[in-house]
Specification:
The protein has helices at residues 11-18, 28-49, 61-86, 98-122, 133-177, 181-184, 236-242, and strands at 188-192, 199-203, 207-213, 216-223, 226-232, 249-253, 256-259, 263-268, 273-277, 284-286. The protein is α+β, with helices and mostly antiparallel strands. The chain folds into 2 domains: 11-169, no CATH class; 183-295, LytTr DNA-binding domain (OB fold (Dihydrolipoamide Acetyltransferase, E2P), Beta Barrel). A hairpin with a 4-residue loop joins strand 8 (263-268) and strand 9 (273-277). The longest helix is centred in the middle third of the chain and has 45 residues, at 133-177. The relative contact order is 0.10.
């Protein structure tokens, strides 16, 4: 009888899942809360269940176990704050995926394991049962791997569902509130380049979005029902300043300015939200801190 291979557990399915976008914790308050919450959890877990022979400790048990909680908190604070500064390319939030998140968490577990081992061998010598390093590492990683994997999977699933729902609601509001854009535009836009010798002039209704590309900006516009582009040597910040009097244009991302009247829908996944346009195939990400209500 031929074996039936489930598409959900094939190697390609797992690889694709690991490459899915995942939101790295970026907010300072959240990082601190998670770090202290995990430390407190470890302390309470050890003092309540008393595994690894902890139940045999008689003197200074509470203070001794508090050290394990403090190690967990300090390692997580170091990993959340120092590592992103030391390895900026690796911790690029726009390229953070599930696989990186799992590796990051396992690295935290490895740090905690080693420090716990040395702490137990030093402070805990004579107080608690001693284990070899390889046993300590193997036991901690094997116990922590599956809960971490489950937590990452559940978080990704919940965030993905939540963001899709929010994106759908925003798209619905956009379609309801958008009036006839042809009636709301009557102005001409003139964008002057850095050198002042080059300029781009267009009806406000026809400019769809602007994308930053190094020292240039690419302007996407419609002409005779076709989407065309124009390069100008200018910074996006300069264009943003020149468009201050045009409320239809908002900077939804560090690299994009969009004409919200050309937005067709908003989509979302676990990492971010994205803007789609009715006549342009360019997909624009929305910055995490950008108020999505400004797109209405």
């Amino acid at each position: 009888m031929a074996k039936v291979h489930s598409p959900y557990f094939s190697s390609s399915a797992i690889i694709n899942w690991l490459k899915k976008p995942y939101p790295f914790v970026a907010e300072l308050k959240t990082k601190v809360l998670i770090s202290f919450a995990f430390g407190i959890f470890i302390y309470l877990f050890l003092i309540i269940f008393q595994p690894f022979g902890i139940d045999k400790i008689i003197a200074n048990k509470a203070y001794y176990l508090l050290g394990f909680g403090m190690i967990t908190t300090l390692v997580m604070l170091f990993s959340y704050f120092a590592l992103p500064l030391l390895f900026k390319k690796t911790f690029d939030l726009d390229r953070w995926v599930i696989g990186k998140e799992i590796g990051f968490v396992l690295f935290i577990i490895a740090q905690i394991t080693l420090l716990n081992y040395f702490y137990n061998s030093g402070i805990g010598y004579g107080l608690s049962e001693q284990h070899a390093l390889h046993y300590f590492v193997l036991f901690t990683v094997s116990v922590g791997f599956f809960p971490v994997l489950g937590l990452v999977f559940l978080t990704e699933l919940l965030l993905n569902t939540s963001h899709k729902k929010t994106a759908s609601e925003i798209s619905s509001r956009i379609s309801k509130e958008r009036s006839d854009v042809t009636a709301s535009f009557s102005s001409k836009i003139k964008i002057v380049s850095e050198s002042k010798s080059d300029a781009f002039e267009i009806d406000e209704i026809n400019l769809i979005l602007i994308k930053s590309e190094d020292n240039y900006c690419k302007l996407f516009y419609q002409q005779n029902d076709e989407v065309k582009t124009q390069l100008l040597r200018i910074t996006l910040k300069n264009i943003e300043n020149q468009l201050e009097t045009f409320p239809a244009f908002v900077r939804s991302h560090r690299s994009f300015i969009v004409n919200k009247n050309h937005i067709s829908e908003i989509t979302g996944n676990a990492r971010a939200y994205y803007i789609h346009f009715d006549k342009c195939e360019e997909i624009v990400p929305i910055s995490r801190n950008f108020p999505k209500e400004q797109l209405l």
